[in-house]
């Protein structure tokens, strides 16, 4: 049975979900695990931090002790992260297009952290374009704390999904598939 205090705490829960997808992005996990980023999240009123660390080898610190004001946990993989994303108040993600567009469809505030170690990183172009259009915030592992500190969630504009059918028809025509 849940007590009134537990209900109040559940109402006050403000969760951050971090995802690196199936990749290894230790720089993002280390950044989120840093004292600076954790402090900025706490200052913004976030109470829970869940990190999906993928193939990475860096193990973040879990919260410990009763006085920890930011409850932290992590895992490597899950069959689906959709529930974690839906319950989050803020999502911090790698620059994978799937993660970006899934978050935007959910209309969740999003900080995309670009992996600067990838060569020929086309993902950064997508993230930067969507940031320029005010759909998300873009950061690097080094600037994540500053981005959290200065982000104005009210400045974000909802992303309107476009109709992909004309593009699909053009691709099918180019590839020689029959028109429907």
TrEMBL record:
It comes from Dendrobium nobile (Orchid). Residues 16-160 form the Glycosyl transferase family 28 C-terminal domain. GO terms for biological process: dolichol-linked oligosaccharide biosynthetic process. One of its GO terms (molecular function) is hexosyltransferase activity. This is Glycosyl transferase family 28 C-terminal domain-containing protein. One of its GO terms (cellular component) is UDP-N-acetylglucosamine transferase complex. It holds the Pfam family Glyco_tran_28_C. It comes from the Eukaryota.
